[in-house]
Amino acid sequence: MFTSSISIRSVALAAFAGAVFTTAASANPLFLLGPTDRQMDQAYHQPYHSYAPETRSSAPFELNDAEQPARFKRQIVDYPTREAPGTIIIDTPHTYLYFVLGNGRAVRYGIGVGREGFTWSGVQTITKKSEWPDWTPPPEMLGRQPYLPRFMAGGPGNPLGARAMYLGGTVYRIHGTNQPQTIGGRVSSGCIRMVNEDVMDLYSRVNVGTKVVVLPMQQHASVQ
């Protein structure tokens, strides 16, 4: 009787472990391979553009604004500017994005910007908007980081987050992120990232054709 009880318990535990293993493998086909030490190290130090599929979050989408330091939380602030209401101004050095309201006021959001050597400045327009965008790393990025996936469907684990707004004919986007701790940092290859709650708010305010002014760092590569 005692032996039978142990056998039944062992079978049940094995079945449970098999179910967990199957679920993880189904959610991430690379689950069985596991990340290399090099990928894990680079993914830690450069969260978005050194992203490896093995390290992505598979958790359900949650609004992540609450995780931000107070100064990066979305708020209406005084912001005198000559730019027309509806313009986006990206303050690269201070990692803020402003949506101009007019009458000296703007909505301010915390953002993440390009790491050293990847910041840029200029004037662009939003040429495309996408909800839960797919991610196809450009050839330049794959050349630097060949271990990246060639394509990733949109969803909570996608590094572009909940929304993306594409800037002109460049490879740059204003987009969400599944790593809110990177807001305020200089970590990307030039894209502007926001927490998902903020990028959804901005997305609802702008249209294709919206003007985007990107202010320079001391050293930057201008985009024509």
Q: What does this molecule look like?
A:
With 224 residues, this protein is α/β, with parallel strands linked by helices. The protein has two domains: 2-32; 64-222, Beta Barrel (L,D-transpeptidase catalytic domain-like), CATH 2.40.440.10. The chain has helices at 2-27, 37-45, 139-144, 196-205, and strands at 75-78, 88-91, 96-102, 105-110, 113-114, 120-131, 163-167, 173-175, 186-188, 192-193, 211-214, 221-222.
Key terms:
2 domains; L,D-transpeptidase catalytic domain-like; disordered C terminus; single chain; globular; 4 helices; disordered N terminus
Number of helices: 4
pLDDT < 50 runs, ≥5 residues: 1-65, 219-224
Number of strands: 12
Q: Examine the secondary-structure arrangement and name the CATH architecture of the largest domain.
A: Beta Barrel
Percentage of residues in strands: 15-25%
**What's the helix-strand series?**
HHEEEEEEHEEEEHEE
At the first level of CATH, the class of the largest domain is Mainly Beta
Structural class: alpha/beta
Based on CA atoms alone, the radius of gyration comes out at 21 Å
Sheet with most strands: 10 strands, mixed
The name CATH uses for the topology of the largest domain is L,D-transpeptidase catalytic domain-like
Shape: globular
Distance between the termini: 79 Å
Helical content, roughly? 10-25%
Query: For this structure, what is the CATH homologous superfamily of the largest domain?
Result: L,D-transpeptidase catalytic domain-like
Compute the number of structural domains: 2
